[in-house]
Amino acid sequence: MTEEEKARIRQEVEEGACEFIHVHREIVDRVESVMPDEQQLLDLSEFFKIFGDSTRIKILYVLSQSEMCVCDIATLLQMGQSAVSHQLRVLKQMRLVSFRREGKTVFYRLADSHIQTILAQGMEHISE
After folding, report:
1. Which of these, 17, 22, 36, 49, has the minimum number of CB atoms within 10 Å of its CB?
2. Please, what are the domains in the chain?
3. Tens digit of pLDDT for each residue in 16-40?
4. SS (H, E, C) 41-81
5. Given strand 68-69, what is the order of strands in its sheet?
């Protein structure tokens, strides 16, 4: 084995790669049997991308506290109503918020308790 090959192997070991190739078939098979399909993983990735925008996180957070209309959210976050409406449209498309009409006013809220839980767990994680 050349010095170059030895150096490459040392680097791989230091980076967490296996020192020698040995597949633990029972572990691989068990995990493979519960792996979601590719489309589900793509959908999950898209779902979490929504949480990667601070404006959307702010909107989700305020809606976790109270149902609000666009005017309320825009005032609270010191944003334009059109910017808030745009983000709410994205959040509706991803089924993170829902709405109800009361006369001419549309009130938004979190779509379900899962979103509240995700926000709470995220806040707990960053607070540790």
Report:
1. 22
2. 3-37 (no CATH), 41-127 (1.10.10.10)
3. 666 667 778 899 899 999 999 999 9
4. HHHHHHHHHHCCCHHHHHHHHHHHHCCEEHHHHHHHHCCCH
5. 68-69, 105-110, 97-102
